[in-house]
Amino acid sequence: MVSRRLLRIKVLKEVYSFLNAQNTSCEAAGKTLKYSIQKTYDLYHLLMLLVIEISDYAMQQIELGKQKNFPTEQELHPNTKFVNNEFITLLRNNVPLRRYCEKQRLSWGGNPEVVKKLLALLYSTNFFRQYMGNASRSFVEDKFLVIQLYSELLEDFEPLLLALEDQNIYWIDDVEFTISQIIKTLKLFRNDQSNDTPLAPLYKEKEDELFAERVLLRATTNSVAYRELVDKHTKNWDLERIAFMDIVIMVTAVAELMEFPDIPIKVSLNEYIEIAKYYSTPNSSLFINGVLDRIVEDLKQEKLLVKEEDSDGDAS
User: How many separate domains does the chain show?
Assistant: First the structure.
């Protein structure tokens, strides 16, 4: 589930904390990294659970309407298309989702207002009105509604973001990525699949887990040397005007370049330059690109940086 881009960002944040706090150990940084990655997987399951909670709450409201002393005609004969949504039923019956949430004690029980407000928001959308107004029913239509809910409502829904931030400091930065992974997962669901169908694994490959650990370990254990390398190639700049995050990005990039001879230089550099666009100043990406290019040339001349692409011509 987690991408290499997300892993790089999480490593970057730990390197930032490490360089900013003299008493932080490499071991502590590694533990925090693992915790952060695991919490992203928790968020993936928690948000997956959200549409089930919304449907359950909608059903509760229908039942309450029927129990009124003087229910309206609409309350006596409600439109149950949403609460009987086949795709949501498929999610509700998914054993891996249920077991993971039970094991990690993930639920929306402590945030009923989020569920209530999100249902109200859903009711107000044109796509929901069109869905409910269509008398026909199909798994494809039910599935598309759920995907629309995730793609159009969640990312900027303030009550949800505030609730997630209150629960865990790591979640707020992972919402956009996690929603995108949930949508990918939902698109793969079929109406004939079993209740035991697994969700996306935390890591696509074992190498991804080792990738994050190795970059962080290399960056923290060699932080002094890499910082000196960055300082060497920025000596003509006013160091006080260089954003600290720029330094952190370059130290982490050098760590990846040195640790993984099989990852092409261009791939690593492009990743950190893109990350700089979101996590540092507006001019940082160009600055970092120039400095890292000079560092790479320096390391190559000193034969300290050897890449497989240099020996066999394969840069894939």
Answer: 2
Residues 130 and 9 in one domain: yes
Q: Is residue 204 part of a domain?
A: no
58-80 pLDDT tens trace: 999 999 999 999 999 888 999 99
Q: Is the confidence at residue 2, as pLDDT, over 60? A: yes
**Is 217 inside any structural domain?**
no
User: What's 252's domain CATH number?
Assistant: 1.10.940.10
Domain that holds residue 234: 222-312
The two structure tokens encoding residue 306: 């050897």
Domain shared by 296 and 251, yes or no: yes
pTM: 0.91
pLDDT, tens only, 208-217 = 989 999 999 9
